[in-house]
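Key result, reporting period 2: structure in, sequence out.
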């Protein structure tokens, strides 16, 4: 492995793991900030892409504009839905476990749309991933709590708890919807790249630039959460005094850019197997950090579900099989022994 690849792997862990931490800090400060977080992410990457990929508006596109409009529809919908789910009592660990189910959604879309066939072992892996997500979801359903004042009326308490549970179910539905939209986007990207060639940086740029107009109707919501961020407690950072929520938002945006660029560099320097292993391990590290540092509730059922998800992911990507094969004698070795 060359130095550039090793550095990219380090940056994936540093950028993506820290990005999840700052996202959780933002959400804990303001649970409804998901829309603002997504907008800032799109704005930052679009600005960087305008300077580099777009060459300040002078670069020519390799993929037709109409195709990008379709791609943007998928990308914007999945991104907004994923971050908006935090407003529905969805915890960060459950959010991460759900997003780890992308392989399941991709496979389902492949069978449904592309009529693909997969080996039996991959179906087993998908079953494990689905079961793991289901177990974690059921475990989390008993922990749905909304910040409400104490009520003496038992019936009123029961009614409010039922409303909170319905709100949480809506959050689960949003996450599921986002998962399958993202999978559909992956299939569409695959068809674009096969027809027009691979231009991931260009696709990333336009996927973040074009949706900026869509946020105009939600400007009052964005402004409202910006105002909430500016009135949070001040904190000193590198000689500057900033509201703490503003600091978390800035650090989230910067680390998000670092995360995305590091994964891209990794895909150009390493085999897809290495990329998959790195991203899978990164998700697991982020999950563990979220549980330990933020003291998020995590029961034995959560651990069983999480292990099913990650073992299923390793089986699906054939990483587990390759690891086991390292300790099994090959046919060549068996022949030598016979001689």
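The corresponding designed sequence is given below.
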């Amino acid at each position: 492995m060359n130095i550039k690849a090793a550095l990219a792997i380090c940056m994936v862990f540093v950028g993506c793991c820290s990005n999840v931490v700052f996202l959780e800090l933002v959400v804990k400060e303001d649970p409804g900030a998901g829309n603002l977080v997504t907008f800032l992410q799109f704005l930052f990457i679009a600005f960087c892409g305008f300077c580099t990929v777009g060459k300040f508006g002078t670069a020519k596109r390799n993929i037709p504009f109409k195709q990008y409009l379709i791609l943007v529809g998928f990308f914007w919908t999945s991104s907004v839905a994923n971050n908006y789910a935090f407003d529905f009592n969805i915890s960060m660990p459950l959010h991460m476990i759900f997003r780890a189910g992308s392989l399941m959604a991709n496979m389902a879309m492949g069978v449904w749309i592309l009529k693909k066939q997969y080996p039996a072992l991959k179906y087993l892996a998908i079953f494990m991933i689905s079961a793991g997500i289901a177990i974690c979801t059921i475990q989390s359903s008993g922990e749905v709590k909304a910040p409400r004042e104490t009520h003496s009326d038992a019936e009123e308490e029961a009614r409010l708890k039922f409303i909170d549970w319905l709100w949480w179910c809506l959050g689960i539905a949003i996450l599921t919807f986002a998962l399958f939209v993202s999978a559909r986007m992956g299939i569409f990207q695959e068809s674009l790249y096969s027809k027009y060639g691979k231009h991931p940086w260009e696709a990333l740029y336009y996927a973040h630039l074009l949706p900026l107009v869509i946020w105009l109707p939600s400007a009052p919501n964005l402004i409202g959460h910006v105002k909430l961020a500016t009135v949070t407690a001040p904190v000193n950072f590198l000689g500057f005094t900033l509201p703490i929520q503003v600091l978390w938002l800035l650090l989230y945006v910067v680390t998000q850019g670092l995360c995305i660029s590091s994964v891209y560099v990794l895909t150009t320097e390493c085999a897809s197997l290495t990329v998959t292993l790195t991203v899978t391990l990164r998700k697991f590290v982020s999950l563990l950090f979220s549980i330990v540092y933020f003291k998020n509730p995590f029961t034995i059922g959560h651990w069983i579900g999480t292990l099913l998800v990650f073992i299923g992911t390793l089986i699906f990507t054939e990483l587990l099989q390759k690891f086991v094969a390292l300790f099994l004698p090959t046919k060549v070795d068996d022949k030598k022994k016979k001689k």
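Residues 3-338 form one domain. The two ends are 36 Å apart (CA to CA). This case is discussed further under Risks and Mitigation.
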